[in-house]
Amino acid sequence: MKLLTAFKLACFGLWSNRYRVVSAMMGVVIGMFAVIVLTAIAIGVKDTLMKQMGSLGAEQILVMPGRVLDTANGQKDLLSGLTSVPSTLTYEDAQAVENVPNVKTVTPQLETVNFVEYEDKNVQSAIVGTTDQYSRVQHAKLAEGRFFTKEEQQAEAKVVVVGNNIHDSLLGKNEVPDAEEGSSTNVVESKPWWKRILNKILGEEVSAEETSLVGKKIMINEETYEVIGVLAPNATLGSSTDNNVVMPIETALTTTDMKNLTKMIVEASSLDVVDEVDGAVFNALAANHSEIDFSVVKQDQMLGALGKVTSILQVMLVGINATALLISGTGIMNVMVMSVRERTREIGIRKALGATTFEIMMQFFFETLLLCIIGGAVGIGLGYAFIEVWNGNIEIFALVLPMWAVKLALYTSIAIGSLVGIYPALKAASMKPSKALRFE
Amino acid sequence: MIDLKDVRKHYRSGNLKSEVLRGVNLQVKQGEYVAIMGKSGSGKSTMLNLLGTLDVLDKGEYKLAGKSVHKMSRGKRVRLRNEEIGFVFQHFQLIPNLSVFQNVLLPLTYGRKRLGKKKARVLALLDEMGLLDKKNQKPDRLSGGEKQRVAIARALVNEPGLILADEPTGSLDEETTENILSLFDRVHEQGATIVVITHDQEVADRAGRILRLQNGVLV
Lengths: 440, 219
Hints:
Chain A: Residues 322-433 form the ABC3 transporter permease C-terminal domain. Chain A: It is found in: Cell membrane. The structure holds two protein chains of two kinds. In chain A, 52% of the residues lie in helices and 17% in strands. Chain A is α+β, with helices and mostly antiparallel strands. Chain A has two domains: 2-52 and 307-437, no CATH class; 86-292, no CATH class. In chain A, strands 4-5-10-7-9-8 form a six-stranded mixed barrel. In chain A, strands 2-3 form a two-stranded antiparallel sheet. In chain A, helix 1 (2-16) crosses helix 12 (357-393), helix 2 (18-54) packs antiparallel against helix 10 (299-342) and helix 2 (18-54) runs antiparallel to helix 13. Chain A starts with a helix and ends with a helix. Chain B has a single domain (30-53, 74-218), classed as 3-Layer(aba) Sandwich (Rossmann fold), CATH 3.40.50.300. Chain B has helices at residues 44-51, 74-84, 100-109, 115-128, 144-156, 174-189, 201-204, and strands at 2-13, 16-28, 33-38, 59-64, 67-68, 85-88, 162-166, 193-198, 209-214, 217-218. Chain B has a six-stranded mixed β-sheet. A four-stranded antiparallel β-sheet of chain B has the order 2-1-4-5, covered by helices on one side.
């Protein structure tokens, strides 16, 4: 009964001081918002990376430039090979690997940045030279047209498959930055999210007289290429194909100055021979190189390394969240201690009129607790809204908010409220009524 | 109603010990109207705090309505204060963010009576005090006299046996003082025991008995 009275008085106390309560609550709101959004970012990044790495397939082996060191327990320390190093891998290396027993396919990739021209449009893009297996191993689906064939590859055919952004930019569907100013690879910019929303609301779709480049000719480095396909949008973190122009590797070698491979994806004929192929590929490459300036990494090693990166991310997340919650909790406690001080006379009056120490203590405890719960709920709601807006408009990676994170945030706000509510409540309860009544 | 025997109380401030009450003896009968006068610092407020169980005595005995207050636990003293004592303070001591109705209801909130009866009791008292039309107003919208009438209504709401008033007209003008004193007279006529702490002779003269506190003892 006393608890119920204290709870009612706490609700009334908060309502009576609602303007101050709102400002006091801001700390918890911001803290919880940060927790929700940061958690969603961390999980979103992890999920996206895992999905991309996982999509390699267990029988696939990645060959990349630079030496990945071994850790003390024999694991590959992929973090040591993440730095940018000049590649010494060549197409000859890829051909050597093709001859390794139990190798099903080898998909080498050459990459450079160049301008692509179509009529009066000039767009900077990533030119990729590869094999007919590219769309399969890279999970790059076609929006229209077709991919080049093995025959076209061997015949050094001047055909290209363009990424979705490049396609739209060349047709004037996207804003095209000034080619003279473009110095980075990420030159092709899509419309800002607010413009796309506005267009959707107003129903203003791009009026495209020309809706497709398939069959049209484009220019790269003063050479003419026929567009035979367009890749479907694939805006994923780190390895998007949207800004790529893909051509046969033999064509790229003869018409561009590209010589060194950025990576090579090797497929073993079955899961059982992956370890054997891994070693054989390494030996085949080592025979072509004077030093070990390349790395051969299996999918499980990639996932292991990624797990290490995401673990670091999670530890950082826990630290940032704990700091945010500590700050918001301390803020609430300070506000409540100030509130107790400001309401000293009120506490004296209540005690003089028959309030017990327990009732006063519980009233202030419930006030702090409710403040944290309401603030936490508002913060979670705002965080959820932010995630919805992000996922609806930003394609680079999706924010993921699992239910456990919401529950954790809510329980944490209750725990903080309980923890920081104790001190102000005890302070209020311990006041002597005769002294409190005289408080000026 | 009240029986104090050789009550002593001191306060400490650092190493200084200050004897405020030095053996007070007082008997107040049921329904009596008593005024305790004294100069500033004579121990009047300490006396009121002890009588109202807001503070505890160091030595001596205090019986209220036959119950030994000096032997009671804190919880029992709180219950006794809520059920048997009504306070009227000089500065009204109303809670500013509560309405007139809620201020008067407060002692019942901490009591054990049923809510239905509580509301009826508060409204009846506000009607009696001529404050029914102000029941939803906050104290800062009331005049000094109205505030003190709210405080008196709050003191009476639990139907206590003892009304303790500390300088009840100290913050009021002459005309309002007279109205409030008449209200005390009326409450006294209805059977309440009243102890008024004051330094105002005019207020003390309304009581049936006047006691003076000098150097910590009643004379």
